[in-house]
Amino acid sequence: MKSEDNNEKNINYDKVNFLLKNYERRVKIITYIYQFELFNKKISCEEIFKNNDLDKWEVATLELIEQKYDTFIKIANKFIDKNWEWQRILPLTRAIIIFGEYELLSKDSKIVINEMVNIAKIFIPNDDYKFINKILDLISKQVFNK
Q1: How far is residue 89 from each of residues 45, 46, 132, 134, 141, measured CA to CA in Å?
Q2: Which positions fall inside the NusB/RsmB/TIM44 domain (predicted)?
Q3: Are 133 and 113 in contact (CB under 8 A)?
Q4: What is the pLDDT of residue 113?
């Protein structure tokens, strides 16, 4: 009985570590995107890579985001109220939307949207998480057919 309890604790511990690692990786990538959005600049992997030590996943992720950056912005703009411009949205909100779009390419939309909303709730002190939820939900349904 005690052995089963220890096994269960180990499994839960492994799951928690896995979830925390994924959360930390997401926040790290969003932080890099945010640094460029803050100055209304297109993401540049060259600038990121020269100042940071990144693992293979982070490099591949940032390279793909850099390649698809303009596409991600165009897609997001389709779902933003016509009275708003992309640049009027908070830079961190933009960074979360961009990364959310990237994740929608390969992950379950409900998980992606939930993660992006949770990150927004932690780092943005207003109701922007609702905006992020709406935009990513529309993108997942109308662009990615999820």
Answers
A1: 23, 25, 11, 14, 22
A2: 74-140
A3: yes
A4: 97
- Which amino acid makes up residue 126? N
Q: Give dist(CA 93, CA 99) in Å, integer.
A: 10
29, 58 contact by CB (below 8 A): yes
Instruction: Kindly list the domain boundaries of the chain, sorted by start residue.
Output: 2-142
Residue 89 and residue 93: Cα distance in Å, rounded?
7
At 46, which amino acid appears?
E
> Among the residues of 38-55, which ranges form H helices?
45-51
Tell me which CATH homologous superfamily contains domain 2-142.
Answer: NusB-like (1.10.940.10)
Q: Which amino acid is present at 27?
A: V
pLDDT for 15: 75
What would the two tokens of residue 66 be?
């850099």
* Structure confidence by residue, pLDDT tens digits, 13-60: 777 887 788 899 999 999 999 999 999 999 999 999 888 888 899 999
